[in-house]
Amino acid sequence: MRTSGTPISALFVNCSLKRTAADSHTRRLMQRVAGVMRSEGVEVEILHALDHDIAVGMAKDLSRETGGHDDWPSIQKKVEGADILVIGTPIWLGAVSSVAALVIERIYAYSADMNDAGQYIYYGKVAGCVVTGNEDGVKTCARDVLYALQHVGYTIPPQADCGWIGEVGPGPSYGDQSEGDGDVPVGYDNEFTNRNATIMAWNLVHMARLLRDNGGIPAVGNQPDHWREVANAADQIVD
After folding, report:
1. 83-100 confidence digits (pLDDT tens)
2. With 0-12 CB in 10 A as exposed, 13-18 as middle and 19+ as buried, what is 206?
């Protein structure tokens, strides 16, 4: 699968509510996905959102509006520079974390910007998500994250998510030690989660490579400044 040329790059944004990155169960599952990508030559960065001051709102740089500090503009440069974006979130009350919602809102604030082909800025990039928790909601959270990212222009390949919820209710989370489990932390030996994490990683890398090698999504009919030309031609055919 490895090819010559500029390596594919992936940015993982961990939207855990844990203040310390090392304590995050979501990070542990993200690292498994990232490990598969690294084995294929992908350049991976894992960013812990709560290590940064990210202002709330839909402006590109909220420090100009509020006078306070806002780290998002520098994070946005990483988002735009990555071929692959992976959002990681825990489940709280059956939904994504407040941090994940904040990160997606800030990504959305730039979605009207254009790339060099006159398309929206996230065209030609791929996205996926990682979900962890101790309650139902993996598929709901994945649906919400992946819908939002495709809506702003990301390409979502098949099976672009993975998750782990373990036994529903209070108890150990992904990567915790549990009495009677020996040396293997909870979830690390779960075949279903590990399989989906591996497939997700490979599909993201494959799709990113396909888009890179073929110049992204063809700029026909999806350029905001020229869509009427295509629409008018279609109207003539209908008439």
Report:
1. 999 999 999 999 999 999
2. middle
Residue 39 dihedral angles phi and psi, to the nearest 5°: -65, -20
Contact 119, 223 (CB under 8 A): yes
Residue 65 has pLDDT above 80, yes or no: no
The share of the chain scoring above pLDDT 90, in percent, equals 67
Q: What is the pTM of this model?
A: 0.88
